[in-house]
Write a structure and sequence with these properties.
Elements: E1 2-7, H1 26-29, H2 32-35, H3 38-43, H4 45-60, H5 66-73, E2 79-84, H6 90-94, E3 99-101, E4 104-111, E5 118-120, E6 138-142, H7 152-160, E7 164-168, E8 189-193, E9 206-208, H8 212-224
Parallel strand pairs: 1-2, 1-7, 2-3, 7-8, 8-9
Antiparallel strand pairs: 4-5, 4-6
Helix pairs in contact: 5-8
The structure holds 2'-O-acetyl adenosine-5-diphosphoribose (OAD).
Length: 226
């Protein structure tokens, strides 16, 4: 069976990373327009760099959780493609081998003059003055609000071809990524894991109202027995 996992910040919550829109979420603490837009970068690159340094430091100090591990373990039984809005590398560290990052990767940095110059951040801290091979300041390899999402066509094809769409820990409030949830074939099964009430009309969806770990345990037991 071809499974596509569409994941969001809630999946990494049990690893200790904050979500964006829950109570106490990141966008309550920070103004998204001051830290996650191209305008913010132009106005105050130091502040943006500091914001992502904090996120990266926490990521280096955190581990994938049970839900990431169970998603990876499903590869023993099915063809599993992860499409994640998350910028952490927990899916990879848990063992998933097919991971598409829609919104970029926190542990990568890129040139501000040449998009093709992308580097691994070996350390959490990026300093002003850290430059690419062409001498320009390195920026986070993140898709900011107002920037295009280059991986969307690839992700759309993956979702359209899925037999099973597993949506975990996303409020489905940020487009175009959220639109993926509506692209599954009518005969595909859609399961959504989220402890919160869900108001989107995704058609016939089974909502498992649990945190990612408990919800994935239930889904893993079912899918590994098929
Ligand atoms: P949100 O913060 O919008 O949504 C998190 C979802 O996870 C909510 O529906 C919560 O109810 C749910 N949740 C909370 N704790 C959970 C848990 N333990 N287990 C499972 N679910 C839980 O995060 P995203 O939907 O990922 O983009 O946000 C999408 C994008 O908005 C992000 O990729 C980021 C952000 O701004 C950029 O920065 C470009």
């Amino acid at each position: 069976m071809e499974i596509v996992v569409l994941s969001g910040a809630g999946l990494s919550a049990e690893s200790g990373l904050k979500t964006f829109r829950d109570n106490g979420g990141l966008w309550e603490e920070y103004d998204v327009y001051q830290v996650a837009t191209p305008e913010a970068w132009h106005a105050n690159p130091e502040l943006v760099t500091r914001f992502y340094n904090q996120r990266r430091k926490q990521l280096f100090e955190s581990e994938p959780n049970l839900a990431h591990r169970l998603i990876a373990k499903l590869e023993a039984y099915h063809s599993v493609q992860v499409v994640t809005q998350n910028i952490d590398d927990f899916h990879e560290r848990a063992g998933s081998t097919r991971v598409l990052h829609l919104h970029g990767e926190l542990k990568k940095l890129r040139s501000t003059v040449d998009d093709t110059l992308v580097y691994e951040a070996g350390h959490w801290e990026v300093k002003m003055g850290d430059v690419c091979a062409r001498g320009s300041q390195l920026r986070p390899h993140i898709v900011w609000f107002g920037e295009s999402v280059p991986q969307m066509p690839v992700a759309e094809k993956m979702v359209r071809e899925a037999d099973f769409l597993l949506i975990v820990g996303t409020s489905l409030s940020v487009y175009p990524a959220a639109g993926l949830a509506y692209l599954a074939r009518p005969e595909a099964n859609i399961v959504l894991i989220d402890p919160a009430e869900v108001t989107h009309d995704l058609g016939e969806v089974r909502h498992i109202r649990e945190k990612a770990g408990a919800g994935m345990q239930c889904v893993y037991e079912e899918l590994s027995a098929l």
